[in-house]
Design a protein that fits this description.
single chain; alpha+beta; Heat Shock Protein 90; 3 domains; 5-stranded mixed sheet; 4-stranded antiparallel sheet; 9 helices; 21% strand
Length: 439
């Protein structure tokens, strides 16, 4: 079953959607894979960093000192704000050196990474309510965090026993201070989007090329299908019309043959020769490349024979040739016959009752004017009448029989001899063809 163009378009949209889905899925999977690779590489390098590294020197608040401040906070010797300010001060001291250190690791890899560690909360003993609410920055590089990724998390447990003297007593007692400090280290790759874009550029370009190629192939396929459909329709028309065109010369040859059986006549033999030539010329248009079979110019006598044969076949048409041909035409006889035959017969097909043919020498050119009083053509048709197989139609119906290649042949003949053809036409006022040929 033959599919309509609409069905082809629907199938294309379906396949194109599936292709986009497949390519999109591959891009997404590749994106996720590259993202994991980047994060794994960052984590691998950052996991080597420890609070005791020399990069921090004595700038960080050490664990023992921090624990002592927690005890002071329990004893209410300092406030929560004092403790947070203390952490902030120490974090600022190490920020510059830490930034340079992290940059030295990731710049050669084309990455811009920022890092920070935070204390989420500080709990005293087993209390559910934190002693200090976080987050509290332990250390950080310079930069603003927008979408941080967790590098690691841990819980620091510390304790210390102190002897506290009982009020108004010589005795003292032991007090155990136990603190639980959950911490989180986070990082962010600032130029992550650019890194992933560079990694995926080749895949993205190849995907776009595949989609573009798919669209181009579909476009070419649809165009080829349309051309083939048009050519098939044209071939059907050509076959139908050739069968019609051959009837006249065949019928003429039959009459000539019967006449010859009765008595030999040189005039009839000449008619037979011309009709055989006409048969050949009817089939010649099917060849794309036509060459002149003779380079001899057409004589005045041959011109007169062409007009006489036409008048013999069309006795009701008034043919006026001005002046009477007395010069040679640079076309060979076959091309001359084809040219005038098509112009004159076209005029008769479209209702001409009178034909005026005028020859005039102009400097280096011979002007040939073929004027008729037929029904004429609309101006919108004129740019197309010399196209192969083009036929004027009305309401999508061809009113006259023909191949639609007569004027195409005329145009090619004139062009072959370096000439020029012009046409002027108006509905109900006839048509005038003007041909300029080199002398």
């Amino acid at each position: 079953m033959e599919l309509k163009p609409k069905n082809y378009i629907i199938l294309f949209i379906l396949f194109f959607t599936v292709l986009i889905g497949i390519q999109g899925y591959q891009l997404y999977n590749t994106y996720r894979l590259k993202l994991r690779e980047v994060f794994a590489d960052v984590k691998k390098n950052l996991n080597k960093l420890d609070d005791t590294d020399s990069v921090f020197d004595n700038n960080l608040l050490s664990k023992d000192i921090a624990r002592d401040y927690y005890i002071k906070l329990v004893k209410k010797e300092i406030t929560e704000e004092n403790l947070k300010k203390l952490y902030t001060t120490h974090a600022q001291k190490t920020s510059g050196e830490l930034t340079r250190y992290v940059d030295s690791i990731f710049r050669p890899l084309g990455m811009h990474v920022i890092l920070k560690q935070e204390i989420l909360n500080i709990y005293y003993k087993d209390a559910t309510k934190p002693l200090v609410n976080g987050p509290i920055t332990v250390y950080t590089t310079s930069g603003t965090f927008r979408n941080p990724t967790e590098l690691s998390s841990s819980k620091w447990l510390t304790e210390k026993t102190e002897m506290n003297k009982i009020q108004d007593s010589i005795q003292s007692r032991e007090i155990l201070y136990v603190f639980s400090v959950p911490r989180k280290t986070s990082f962010e790759v600032v130029n992550l989007s650019w890194i992933l874009f560079k990694e995926l550029t080749s895949l993205l370009l190849s995907t776009l090329l595949i989609l573009a190629a798919f669209i181009w192939l579909f476009y070419r396929t649809i165009n080829n299908l349309k051309k083939q459909k048009k050519q098939i329709a044209v071939l059907h028309d050509v076959v139908d019309n050739i069968s019609h065109e051959l009837k006249t010369p065949i019928a003429t040859l039959k009459i000539a043959a019967k006449t010859l059986q009765k008595s030999p006549d040189n005039t009839i033999i000449a008619v037979i020769e011309r009709q055989v030539n006409r048969l050949e010329q009817t089939l010649d248009p099917l060849n794309e490349n036509q060459t002149a079979t003779s380079l001899s110019p057409t004589t005045a006598k041959e011109l007169q024979a062409i007009f006489s044969d036409f008048q013999l076949c069309n006795p009701t048409v008034r043919l006026l040739v001005e002046p009477s041909p007395s010069m040679q035409v640079c076309l060979n006889s076959i091309d001359t016959t084809t040219l005038f035959h098509n112009l004159m017969n076209n005029a008769v097909k479209y209702g001409a009752s009178q034909l005026n043919i005028r020859f005039e020498e102009q400097k280096d050119y011979l002007s040939i004017q073929v004027k008729d009083n037929a029904q004429g053509m609309e101006e919108s048709e004129l740019p197309y009448i010399f196209e192969k197989f083009y036929r004027i139609q009305k309401d999508n119906i061809h009113d006259t029989k023909g191949l639609g290649i007569g004027l195409f042949l005329v145009k090619n003949i004139v062009k072959k001899y370096g000439g020029e053809i012009k046409v002027i036409s108006k509905l109900q006022h006839g048509t005038t063809f003007t041909i300029l040929l080199p002398l």
